[in-house]
Amino acid sequence: MSDRTAAVTRETGETEIEVVLDLDGDGDATIDTGVGFFDHMLTALAKHGLFDLTVRCDGDLAIDDHHTVEDVGITLGEAFLEAVGDKRGIVRYADRRVPLDEAVGDVVLDISGRPYFQWSGEFSQPSVGEFTSDMARHFFESFALNARVTLHAAIEGENAHHEIEALFKSAARALDDATRIDDRRSDTPSTKGTL
């Protein structure tokens, strides 16, 4: 493991979550949230972002998937914030647009220390398996606010599975790009001197 790692747990009356993240990994993932499609998306996030990621969640799925997806987003955001550290030497900004057949996911982000989330688009179907489609939007909102990043996300397409998967893949590639260490930079990429 690199030194850009974090292990975060979260326990509420609705979920018990463990997240382990290595920003400089190989894309290895061990995911178990109880929601099959969400597991698939988190695996894609790790694979295409080249993060090593473990996520275990025991949530109140007898109600629905909301608390599980939201709380994993919160916990992963907290882990990301811890793992990225003082942000010294990172690229900071990234913009990735990823297609999946007819669908396109678009993510623009700034590892700014300023939490902000902007969304554009609508999912073509209300759910994919046991996963409520709009929870993909809510996941990235929860992640962005807790990772303290600015994240603009958009989707277009005709199939919710494709739209959500393109979104997760574009986010993965953008997060990988923005967290990379720029060998030309030894300081924090900000005129303020801090992010």
Characteristics:
single chain, 195 residues, alpha+beta, Ribosomal Protein S5, domain 2, four-stranded mixed beta sheet, 4 helices
Question: Care to describe what's here?
Answer:
The protein is α+β, with helices and mostly antiparallel strands. It has one domain: Ribosomal Protein S5, domain 2 (2-Layer Sandwich). 34% of the residues lie in helices and 30% in strands. It is built from four helices and ten strands, in the order βββαβαβββββαβα. Strands 1-2-4-3 form a four-stranded mixed beta sheet, with helices on one face. A hairpin with a 2-residue loop joins strand 5 and strand 6. The radius of gyration is 16 Å and the shape is globular. It starts with a strand and ends in a 16-residue tail after the last helix. The relative contact order is 0.20.
Concise description?
This protein has four helices and ten strands; from the N terminus they run βββαβαβββββαβα.
Strand order of the largest sheet: 1-2-4-3
Count of the domains: 1
The fold-level CATH name is: Ribosomal Protein S5, domain 2
Largest sheet: 4 strands, mixed
Number of helices: 4
Q: Helicity, in percent?
A: 25-40%
Cα Rg = 16 Å
The chain-level mean pLDDT equals: 96
Low-pLDDT runs of 5+ residues are none
CATH superfamily: Imidazole glycerol phosphate dehydratase, domain 1
Number of strands: 10
Strand content: 25-35%
- Label the overall shape: globular
- H/E order of the elements? EEEHEHEEEEEHEH
Structural class: alpha+beta
